[in-house]
Design a protein that fits this description.
The chain has an eight-stranded parallel barrel, surrounded by eight helices. A three-stranded antiparallel sheet has the order 13-14-15. A three-stranded antiparallel sheet has the order 16-17-18. The chain is α/β, with parallel strands linked by helices and 512 residues long. Strand 3, helix 2 and strand 4 form a beta-alpha-beta unit. The chain has three domains: 275 residues, Aldolase class I (TIM Barrel, Alpha-Beta Barrel), CATH 3.20.20; 50 residues, no CATH class; 116 residues, 2-Layer Sandwich (Double Stranded RNA Binding Domain), CATH 3.30.160.270. The chain is built from 16 helices and 18 strands. The longest helix has 18 residues. Bound molecules: 3-methyl-2-oxobutanoic acid (KIV) and zinc ion (ZN). The site of zinc ion has 6 residues, from loops.
Length: 512
């Protein structure tokens, strides 16, 4: 039997980015977008162009480079927001406008302070305005999970008449349970005229841990687009995890009438990339992408798997991209091999200057660490994404001293706006001393919210990847740094975060 297509709409770069501390630079968004395209995601929601100039630029940059996926921009149901989003997605080979307005009694009365009739007028005007600029228009009823079904029927019928092509039913606050949510989708499809002319989409939040279950129940009820994020990133408890949706549908083809076109072997790489860029670690027991997702500890399980893998495994680790970290390069590898491997990993380097500097750093790393894995290259390139012109602070050299019974000392040379500055401090540990030394030069006054270290690969010569999250005046940024010396990695991460704080742009709250 031929299966229907299930559209995978990834919103890591929009809803995912709305997680406090997960905001991304344009370059980071571009790296993730390229990986999503490699994974054959159907729609990439790249951001909310009216939220800030930075968001606009990022959506536009994604629209310029992505060719195999549709690029969507989110906007409220106002002409000004929609015009901005239209402008941002204009360069896309295939672009989409995603406009939304709240439809639940509580949101309409308390947040929008609008009468239901006026909400219908705003929604129809918005869809009409968007359709004048683009053929692909998605309309979302924000908080549809708590909206009255009769009102949903009225507003959706009206926007379909105006030309909406996809109708999204978000469970914005993660309140629904699978049977009830599926029933809602079924009823809407049955009751609304021309419901077969649009794609029904779901967008579930995970406040009760039900985002994936609700999305899959909706797919069984006829939804043919699922909005989801890598690692389940997203507002509060997050969104439905893309990897879980895709693998559930693929593994249980006996129960689903549809399938995706996702290249599942790219899943683990996408998960690691998003975790590295946002600094949100993946819990070891997370389905599909957790480090233990395919590890068997108990003797009985190990014995079973050795005798016949399917005794305890319903999916193959290699099908989602585990065990593919090949030894790729070493210190004798040349620039061409280095560039080719980056291309294989979906990292395209447009500037010769960035390539030269990345290659020089690769050689340095290969001297310290003889085996260079794909994960090392990802980390190396994420250090490279802040172009030299953007870097106000740079680490020029470092010296650390730590001895039993003595306070650890850090002595650093930094460049601050091109001027060489020496900094020295003691601290309760070498990392604390390093951060204090940097702060004595930067005087940022920022608050350290998170400090985390992960080994990128195995072995004691592995690089440590450090994430530092800083907050200042209501803005939160993540900095990353990687090095075989974790104190140096920490210094790089702190400096990266300081540079982001200096160059950041303010955002509006999209839920306003
Ligand atoms: O959760 C939500 O309702 C949203 C919409 C803007 C689609 O993110
Ligand atoms: Zn959402």
């Amino acid at each position: 039997m031929s299966k229907e297509h299930l559209i995978i709409f990834d919103t890591t770069l929009r809803d995912g980015e709305q997680s406090p501390g997960a905001s991304m630079t344009k370059e980071e968004k571009l790296r993730i977008a390229r990986q999503l395209e490699r994974m054959r995601v159907d729609v990439i929601e790249a951001g909310f162009p009216a939220a800030s100039n930075g968001d606009f630029e990022a959506v536009r940059a994604v629209a310029e480079v992505i060719k195999e996926s549709t690029v969507a921009g989110l906007c409220r149901a106002f002409d000004k927001d929609i015009a901005r989003a239209l402008d941002a997605v204009k360069p896309a080979k295939s672009g989409r406008i995603h406009t939304f307005i709240a439809t639940s009694p509580i949101h309409m009365e308390k947040k929008l302070r609008m009468a239901p009739e006026d909400v219908i007028i705003a929604a129809t005007n918005a869809v009409r305005f968007a359709r004048n600029g683009i053929a692909d228009v998605e309309f979302s009823c924000e908080d549809a999970g708590r909206s009255e079904i009769d009102f949903l029927c009225r507003i959706i019928e009206a926007v379909i008449k105006e030309g909406a092509t996809t109708i999204n039913i978000p469970d914005t606050v993660g309140y629904n349970v699978p049977e009830q949510y599926a029933e809602r989708i079924r009823q809407l499809r049955e009751r609304i005229p021309n419901s077969d002319k649009v794609v029904w989409s779901v967008h579930c939040h995970n406040d009760l841990g039900l985002a994936v279950a609700n999305s899959l129940a909706a797919v069984m009820a006829g939804a043919r687009q699922v909005e989801c994020t890598i690692n389940g990133l997203g507002e509060r408890a997050g969104n439905a995890a893309l990897e879980e949706i895709v693998m559930a549908v693929q593994t249980r083809q006996d129960v689903f009438l549809c399938n995706t076109r996702i290249d599942t072997t790219q899943i683990v790489a996408a998960s690691k990339m998003v975790s590295g860029i946002t600094g949100f670690p993946v819990q070891p027991n997370k389905a599909i992408v957790g480090a233990n997702a395919f590890a068997h500890e108990s003797g009985i399980h190990q014995d079973g798997v050795l005798k016949h893998r399917e005794t305890y495994e319903i999916m193959r680790a290699e099908d989602v991209g585990w065990n593919t970290n090949k030894l790729v390069l070493g210190k004798h590898s040349g620039r061409t091999a280095f560039k080719a491997r980056l291309k294989d990993l979906g990292i395209s380097v447009d500037s010769e200057q960035v390539l030269n500097s990345a290659f020089a750093r690769f050689k340095e790393l290969a001297d310290k660490k003889h085996e260079i894995f794909d994960e090392d290259l990802h980390a190396l390139m994420s250090d490279e994404v802040v172009t030299p012109d953007d870097e106000h602070f740079k680490l020029l050299s470092s010296m650390f001293h730590s001895e039993t019974g003595e306070s650890p000392q850090a002595r650093l040379t930094l460049s601050a706006g091109g001027t060489e500055r020496k900094a020295e401090s003691s601290g309760s540990g070498p990392v604390d001393a390093t951060f204090k030394a940097i702060e004595s030069v930067a005087v940022s006054g920022s608050e350290l919210l998170l400090y985390s270290v992960n080994a990128i690969t195995t072995g004691t010569d592995a690089q440590g990847e450090v994430t530092v999250r800083l907050a200042k005046d209501g803005r939160i940024v993540n900095g990353q740094g990687a090095d075989t010396d974790i104190v140096v990695a920490s210094a790089k991460a702190y400096i990266n975060a300081l540079n982001k704080l200096r160059s950041g742009t303010e955002k509006l709250n999209p839920q306003l």
